[in-house]
Amino acid sequence: MKSKLYRSLIAAGVLTACNEPRSPAGLSQYDATPRFAQSVADPTATIKLPLADAGLSLKSDGKFGDGTYSLYADGVCGITGTIFVGGSGDEVVDGSNPSAKDRKCIYYPRKVTVLYPDGIAEVISGPLMSVSELENQTYLIPIGSTGTRHFHVRTNTTRCDGVHWGSPVGGDSVLVTRTAADTWHVQTQPYPNDNAACKRSTGNTLLGHMPIDLWIVSSQALP
Fold first, then answer.
1. Exposure of 38 by Cβ count < 10 A (0-12 exposed, 13-18 middle, 19+ buried)?
2. First CA to last CA distance, the chain
3. Which residues of the chain have pLDDT under 50?
4. pLDDT in tens, 102-115
5. Are the CB atoms for 64 and 76 separated by under 8 Å?
């Protein structure tokens, strides 16, 4: 039986095909109205990965937990995190930035585990996790609304340079729900629209179903 969320997303026109870059019907994903009256410094960002991660393909290292999530926070244990509201609008949390603070942390570099559909798991040291076009002068997900975005994890292994959900590499775009002025919930679309793709220099390939679930928190409220 399809979930209530799945039915509501279909009704709203949120679910999209692989490599679909357009805004879903009924969603104001792109808004050209200037929202930053003054120059706003790029806020820092934290990614929260759930500690209860059974069935998920992106798993935390379990460190810096709050009882529910493992936090990858800017300035803590070699992590840098930024939402580039003054430029691309991308959110980027990087665990291997050489200019990061606190690189003498006993848990440095932070890690994540990527679990592939064939059952192989890779532990990634110093991962980069990014949502493209989260928010800037042009791109907007209103509070209480959901849009589709491209999410990727840099892996730099023999298998993949990175794992991507959505364009331009492939797979299915993720759903990003803005729950507050400083908070976004990122998750894959309901099965079977939860495919990821592998980016490599020799060509990109579809990996298969790889569900993810995470939260992004900004250091300040945004318009």
1. exposed
2. 38
3. 1-34, 37-38
4. 999 999 999 999 99
5. yes
